[in-house]
Amino acid sequence: MGSASDSEEEVDAKTILAIRTSAKRRHTRKANHLKALIDGEGKADDVNVALAVLEEAYSEVVRVNAKY
């Protein structure tokens, strides 16, 4: 009988793919939003916020890829 952490490590391939794909999609949407703000000459505050959100999304992609 395994512990709860053992069951968390035993994630099937489909679930791993879904988790990684979801994180990548979030990152892509945030990157596209930032690009649209820059191309549309968005306000500096909006660009800074979008950049911070993009950095968080990137960190999530890195974390998910490292975990799985």
Indicate the topology:
Elements: H1 4-9, H2 13-39, H3 44-67
Helix pairs in contact: 2-3
What does this structure look like?
The chain contains 3 helices and no strands. It has 68 residues and is mostly helical. It has one domain. The longest helix is centred in the middle third of the chain and has 27 residues, at 13-39. It is elongated, with a radius of gyration of 16 Å. Residues 1-6 have low confidence and may be disordered.
What is the structure about, briefly put?
The chain has three helices and no strands.
Features:
single chain; 3 helices; mainly alpha; 68 residues
How many strand elements? 0
Overall structural class, as computed from helix and strand content, comes to: mainly alpha
Q: Give the end-to-end Cα distance, rounded to a whole number of Å.
A: 23 Å
Percentage beta strand: under 5%
Shape: elongated
The biggest sheet, with number of strands, parallel, antiparallel or mixed sense and barrel status, is:
none
Number of domains: 1
Q: Report the order of strands and helices.
A: HHH
Q: Mean pLDDT, as a whole number?
A: 88
Percentage of residues assigned to helices:
over 70%
Low confidence ranges:
1-6
Provide a count of the helices. Answer: 3
State Rg.
16 Å
